[in-house]
Fold:
Amino acid sequence: MSESANCIFCKIVRGEIPSIKIHEDAQTLSFMDVRPASPGHTLVISKAHTPNLLEIAEADLLAVTVVVQRVAQAIQKALAPDGMRVSQFNGAAAGQTVFHYHVHIIPTQEGQRIGAHGRDQADAQQLESLAAQIRAALGS
Ligand code: AMP
Ligand code: ZN
Structure:
């Protein structure tokens, strides 16, 4: 069995499990993190299964990075956070839990302490509402 068969992000790419999408193109997919570290926490992934930064093909890395900037600009426009953390983990020892290349975009507010990951599953309607605002900003 291939590595991607049981990979949760490959399952999202294949539409086998649901996600709240922000953006999609030939090489990348962006969707809401189900356990957000803060409201608006978005993931940008490569569609190709590749575990981490060390192994991703340059073309996929470039495609993800360009979309990270576009989605971050849309989050800024839609949610006006005070700042934004962009992070990416390589290996369990670094805190990686899903071994399919992805970048976190985490809106931050002045004076609020946030972790790298959220603890609790977000309310689906709240995620949907944030996603709609970010999608609208992306399209405008
Ligand atoms: P990392 O530690 O960088 O591998 O983070 C993986 C992230 O994926 C975590 O923030 C999880 O909350 C998130 N995550 C895991 N499964 C899903 C899913 N089915 N849909 C959306 N986000 C997910
Ligand atoms: Zn995968």
